[in-house]
Amino acid sequence: MTGIQTDEVLARATFGADGLLPAVIQQHDTGEVLMLGYMDAEALRRTLTEGRTTFWSRSRQEYWRKGDTSGHVQYVKSAAFDCDADTLLVQVDQIGPACHTGARRCFDVDPLEVVVGGAGESS
Amino acid sequence: MTGIQTDEVLARATFGADGLLPAVIQQHDTGEVLMLGYMDAEALRRTLTEGRTTFWSRSRQEYWRKGDTSGHVQYVKSAAFDCDADTLLVQVDQIGPACHTGARRCFDVDPLEVVVGGAGESS
After folding, report:
1. CA-to-CA distance for B46 and A62, rounded, in angstroms?
2. Facing A87 at nearest CB: one of B5, B36, B114
3. What's the pLDDT tens digit per position in B110-123?
4. pTM for the complete prediction?
5. Residues 47..106 of B with a Cβ closer than 8 Å to A: which?
6. DSSP notation for chain B
7. Rounded Cα–Cα distance for residues A91 and A94 (Å)
8. What is the least distance, in Å, from the CA of A74 to any CA of chain B?
């Protein structure tokens, strides 16, 4: 895709031993963390150049462009590596629920009981 | 820690082949995604019960309680698994910068050029 320095980005990316890196998917306007998926180099290339997120499904061992079967598309708004380029943050516009369970985001379901830290607070 | 069903949580967690799961760390009030770290069962137990985040450092192969050397503590506010319990989202109050580079968050440094998706927008 003209103007996108995709080769440079792919050269910078640090993939794990399995050839994948985790991609945190965040709703661009609300800040909700929707899900985490995995990308190999090709999924990353597609995500940067197609305006939609593509993941590598570890369970199905195939590419998975979010929304192709469900309609719950993620339109890419921006993306950034972390400081050592082994994690990606993608800000998206999520159409409908992000989770295959039908929940808006994958993390809503069951908050854990925690000891809350910080001055003057307890769980 | 009394009242925390830590054993149940640990039994639900799905760790990877390396015994780790990724933990997305988010500032609880602003929604900023600060960083991603990895936890094994013991790091997860400590994070749920100590009010502060502990990670497993893959590079140093040791536990790392965030802020012990830098002072840049992460106070735990809440935590949730995703739908298949192989990723954790932890909402924290981050004291100072989250990144070892001194940046507030690890993802600020270098946003990537992307093709923006969605109706009526282009990069």
Report:
1. 35
2. B36
3. 789 999 999 654 43
4. 0.92
5. 47-52, 73-83, 87, 89, 93, 99-101, 103, 106
6. -TT--HHHHHHH----TTS-EEEEEEETTT--EEEEEEE-HHHHHHHHHHSB-EEEETTTTEEEETTTTTS--EEEEEEEE-TTSSSEEEEEEE-S-SSTTS-SSTTSS-EEP-PPPSTT---
7. 9
8. 8
- Residue A66 in tokens: 């979010």
- Given an 8 Å threshold on Cβ–Cβ distance, is A114 in contact with B87? no
Length of chain A: 123
| Contact present, A104 and A97 (Cβ < 8 Å) | yes
Kindly state the tokens that stand for A53: 């997120």
Contact A83 B89 (CB under 8 A): no
Taking the Cβ of residue B41 and every Cβ of chain A, the question of whether any pair is shorter than 8 Å is answered with no
Q: How many CB atoms lie within 10 A of CB B110?
A: 12
Query: What is the per-residue pLDDT for A92?
Result: 98
Token reading at B88: 């954790």
Tally the residues of chain B.
Answer: 123
Which structure tokens are listed for B12? Answer: 């639900």
Does residue B31 contact residue A32 with C-beta atoms inside 8 Å?
yes
